[in-house]
Amino acid sequence: MGGYSALRLLREGLRDQRGWRPAWRSPKLRKAYDIVIVGAGGHGLATAYYLARNHGITDVAVLEKGWLGGGNTGRNTTVIRSNYYYPESCALYDLSLRLYEGLSRELNYNVMFSRRGMMILHHSEHEREIAARTVNAMRLNGVDAELLDRDEVRARAPLLNFGEDARHPILGAVWQERAGTGRHDAVAWGYARAADRLGVEIVQNCEVTGFIVEGGTCKGVETSLGPVRAGRVGMAVAGHSSHLAAMAGFRLPLTSYALQAFVSEPLKPMLDCVVASPAHGVYISQSDKGGLVMGGALDRVPTYGQRGNLPVQEDVLGGLVDCFPAIARVGLLRQWAGIVDVSPDSSPILGPSPLPGLYLNCGWGTGGFKAIPAGGLLFAHILAQGAHHPISAPFDLTRFERGRLIDEGAASGIAH
Questions:
Q1: How buried is 219 (Cβ within 10 angstroms: 0-12 exposed, 13-18 middle, 19+ buried)?
Q2: Mind listing the pLDDT tens digit for each residue in 331-387?
Q3: Could you read off the pLDDT of 156-168 as tens digits, one per residue?
Q4: Which residues contact 225 (CB under 8 A, 6 or more apart)?
Q5: Angle at CA of residue 260, ends 259 and 264, nearest 5°
Q6: Which residues, listed in sequence order, are joined to residue 362 by a DSSP beta bridge?
Q7: Quick count: other Cβ atoms within 10 Å of Cβ 382?
Q8: Domains along the chain with CATH numbers
Q9: Element containing residue 296 per DSSP (H, E)
Q10: What would the 3-class secondary structure string for 297-321 be?
Q11: pLDDT confidence of residue 303
């Protein structure tokens, strides 16, 4: 209850909620800071928190053109996992998962992390071979993984379609016990409150409209509330990364797509893990409120529209019904889309930009939410030290020049 008694809750209800202390301040924008972070989503807020907590840098402003957590952080399906293939990716995403496991305690804010496990199904002998290779790679990289057979899958999710006439018969699955889900807005609010209490300033309704460049170096940002100077500027704006990069005078190897999600009407408990089917291009979990949270492949039309399109909706929902015939008549509660920035190797970009003084946290594609704690911790290190952390170094922008790609195009279990 965050220290509030039942009597306090009743009293606040009777006086129209006028006695609460805001969880974070609403300061006026100052003219200069040591570090400015563009974007008050999960990654930007986590970066600010770790700058203050790990590096003692509190003269930090987080600038958000809308409201805190109103972008992709508030528009995702909340899956948290580290079942990736390459050593670099496993190190990054398992760091994030470990941080999530203790995040509620660290922030003193319940982010509702639910360790419920995740299955990625396989439906053919070829997919089973790839699944076995994935499990071996994960174990070699120090990440928990298990290869389940058909009966073990049925025991965990009996409502899956095990019929002989199934379009994609289920042969087994890759299982990660430690995977789960969290509450997207709670993650943003928890980091915001913790960062604010350490002295960070979060300024909402402040749009960045350009960059202050002197002597070929970024010295701050132009905003709708006036210019702001900074020793270093960090950019964590997800699907709008290319747009801001253009303002700074360079191009990024990113394409922005809409990624749709759906939630059903509340149901009694029917699924206590996360299930993904690469063959169907879908994934599903059940929220604490009972709704089925569902998603699938990208809308393959570059866009900034947060709606998605009907053909993708049909593919996703059709695939889900094929996986779970029992949900065919369940009503949808709502549908939405987030704007994701996808790199050529479906791995993120962390580190300095082509403009000295400006640093990048982008390219997370469909994996941004699960990576919030690690992305923030590593980006804070980069901004504080002006140099990479060992885990972030492989994800530098220069890997595209060097050909050192980390191709995780299949790691989401759906088409990237």
A1: buried
A2: 999 999 999 999 999 999 999 999 999 999 999 999 999 999 999 999 999 999 999
A3: 999 999 998 899 9
A4: 29, 203, 206
A5: 155
A6: 349
A7: 23
A8: 115-179+256-342 (3.30.9.10)
A9: strand 292-299
A10: EEECCCCCCCCCCHHHHHHHHHHHH
A11: 79
